[in-house]
Amino acid sequence: MANEAVKYVWEGAIPLQIHLHKSDVASHPAPPPALVLAPRIGYLPLLIPHIKPYFKDSLPPGEDSIWFDYKGVPLKWYIPTGVLFDLLCAEPERPWNLTIHFRGYPSNILIPCEGEDFVKWNFVNSLKEAQYIINGNCKNVMNMSQSDQEDLWTSVMNGDLDAYTKLSPKLKMATIEDDFSRKASLSSPQSRQGATEMDVAGQVKTARVPVRLYVRSINQDFENLEDVPEIDTWDDISYLNRPFEFLREEGKCFTLRNAIESLLPEFIGDKAQTSGEERSKDDDTEEADGLLREMGEIKLARIQGIEMKLEIPFSWVVNNLMNPEFYLHISVLVKAPQR
Amino acid sequence: MNSGREVSDGRLTVEGFSVAARAFADKWKIHNQSFPPWSWVPLINRTLHLSNQQEEGYLSLEEILILSSLEESPEDESLNVATDCLEKEESVDHTILVQNQENEAHYYDFHIVYSSSYKVPVLYFRGYCSGGQPLSLDVIKKDLPSCSVSLLHESKWTFITQEEHPYLNRPWFKLHPCGTEDWIKLLSQSSISTGCQMPVDLYLVSWFSVVGQVVGLRIPLEMLN
């Protein structure tokens, strides 16, 4: 049974204003931009059937190879639309103005996307990877029947949470749990599916959570998000595809800050703020390093368009805000450590 | 987290990968002199100014020149590799070395990158011509051993896929890591009689003895000792 937060996530959408790139305009006058509502958990190429009709009469002859850019930066089509928006627009722009191209695919920068199949397989491969991280193997995804896999993908494409909720139990993903979520589930009437599988009495188990971290580093401080400089290229962003690992122990609960800091050990954060909290496990090596330098600072962490309070329990964040392929995508804006 | 001296479940820790990578590169240098050596590229992240205490990185072998052959013997489907080591005589097998139909040399880069998701190494590669233009998979297929090509036809999306390089923001080809831990475990079982332990030092050597064949790179048997 899907909860409230998950419904909001699936319903999240971004208004786009799509402009045809001038080099693709073969009509006079140039066509007006297309307005499309893009699901956050979806992918840009899936919008093409909705966008193309607006522009088809203006296109030059030839075959289409469609791609999008935002202020000159080619958009990576395999990143969920909501994540692209959260990452590239420090100050959210509504509608989000994008440019669509029908020619001149930058294949030296972007991997090809020649149709829905490409997007689907990107999704399935991410799902396999996430399952491998959570369960330790991806046999459930591999063993899923073709039609179930199709139906699961279709439910994501259509933003159909009900259909997805009926199919996702077939994946048998272990639940992500720490002491906070265990206590929360004890007080709720619903039983947590799969909790007993992973909970071996008396044993400490290492759990892994699929996380994709997109980090923008700024050198100077800023007052408003409007003052954050624009991204010129993807080289301005560090992409970290690595799982958050933790030992499930009695009394242990991780915050979002703990998770981000453990993935970015150089950003242990302001000492005054973290003195009362859990420290990341890299604490000791940091001390041993002996270097005194000003730490970097996490200025902003966005998930599903929400500017997160870093003290929120991480297990809640994962269980409620992850994408349908079971990855938690976090856009982070950091102030770089001074040297 | 220590790397341990042995691997028993087919997987590597990130520290284990660093150890295994250096061991692999060293053995390659000694036993595989017809090839240029692998180099270790540390991950010093420019934007984050990360300086990792445990040095993370990947192995790189670049600018390998491939010339297609007219006649291929069925038993020996290694890539006919030319190197620019002029001092040494290249080991030429009995196939005829000619340039491919486009009359162009094909260059290949290979990177061995650690996957923290799968806890195994992953092979990334790309091909390009002397002008630097990337080669498409259709063109690359002509340079690959035929068994790889037929496997490509069967499993279009799960064997060799074009994905973004984890660190370089460019499209590369990747050999899927699903299943790696299983066949590494099999390799460990067959080579050592006591349990299925594999010394970390030998991990990449064993791994590459299988994976390298997919892209036509063979390693001499001496490396496995």
TrEMBL record, chain A:
Domain of life the protein comes from: Eukaryota
Autophagy protein ATG5 alpha-helical bundle region domain sequence ranges: 116-172
Keyword check for Transport: yes
Domain Autophagy protein ATG5 UblB positions: 208-332
Role of this protein: Required for autophagy.
Quaternary structure note: Conjugated with ATG12.
Family: Belongs to the ATG5 family.
Protein name per its UniProtKB record: Autophagy protein 5
Automatic annotation (TrEMBL), chain B:
Gene3D superfamilies: 3.30.1460.50
Coiled-coil stretches noted in the UniProt entry, renumbered to this chain: none
Record bears the keyword Transferase: yes
Keywords assigned by UniProt, alphabetized: Autophagy, Transferase, Ubl conjugation pathway
Family to which this protein belongs: Belongs to the ATG10 family.
Name of the molecule in the record: Ubiquitin-like-conjugating enzyme ATG10
Species for this entry: Camelina sativa (False flax)
